[in-house]
Amino acid sequence: MAYLVLVIIGVCSAVIGALVGIGGGIIIVPSLVYFGIDHHLLSGMTPQRAIGTSSVILITTGLTATLGYLKTKQVDVKNGLIFLIGIIPGALVGAYLSKYFTLDSFNLYFGIFLILISIILMIRNQVKPIKYFQQEKYLKSFIDKTGEKHQYGIPPIAAVISAFIVGITTGLFGIGGGALMTPLMIIVFKFPPHVAVGTSMMMIFFSSLSSSVSHVIQGNVLWVHAIVLIISSYFGAKIGVKINSRMKSDTVVLILRITMLILGIYLIIKSIL
């Protein structure tokens, strides 16, 4: 029964994660806590081990999705590497800080975090572009599959600082950083949603490598669970990439927003009850 639960978690999280550029950690971590701690179906589970195991899984999801998005030219490698300068050290800091979480505090803070991002996505079209981020020397163009032209750019210093903050949430919550990085790229840096998703998956791969090192050292990875999740996540990520390539940008953002809102409300209710 435990293995079946892990396969379902792995496939579903990878499909949704690759589809909207969040890696799937926001599904894996609460699911491992729910089935492992609340219902005792997964032995040896703690909040820290759910986070650590999730970080390892996201390496597979991130790599598989990135390779798929590279084929469809949805990855901005140059700007993605700039973000990584900040996100990798941030992930190491966050992974260290995660040891101070209790189950209730984890559910509460993670839930608030997800709802906040969902709300930001709701008002993204009302947020006026910040002139500093739209400097002509940083701008580049992208034409999506509908023929619409997008212009976006990232000043390096702002990118590194914002990515460092995102990196802390990566290690802290074991979510790969995509839950914050994708909305950040869409809202602040005006990335086309499809490019934001593809680029986010590349960063999730590298940031998960970084945070996983710290979690492995701390003994926060349940390797038997991880192997089952890795195999199922591999196939789930491939499915998510294929679905994404057929969807409109607004639909991608809508799914991202709804996913975060539902999970956020659920986790806050759990922390209170």
Automatic annotation (TrEMBL):
The entry's keywords: Cell membrane, Membrane, Transmembrane, Transmembrane helix
PANTHER family: MEMBRANE TRANSPORTER PROTEIN MJ0441-RELATED, MEMBRANE TRANSPORTER PROTEIN YJNA-RELATED
Listed InterPro entries: TM_pro_TauE-like, TSUP/Inactive_protease-like
Positions of transmembrane segments: 7-37, 49-69, 81-100, 106-123, 157-179, 191-209, 221-239, 251-269
Name assigned to this protein: Probable membrane transporter protein
Membrane topology term: Multi-pass membrane protein
Domain of life, per lineage: Bacteria
Signal found in the keyword field: no
Principal localisation: membrane
Subcellular location per the Swiss-Prot or TrEMBL entry: Cell membrane; Membrane
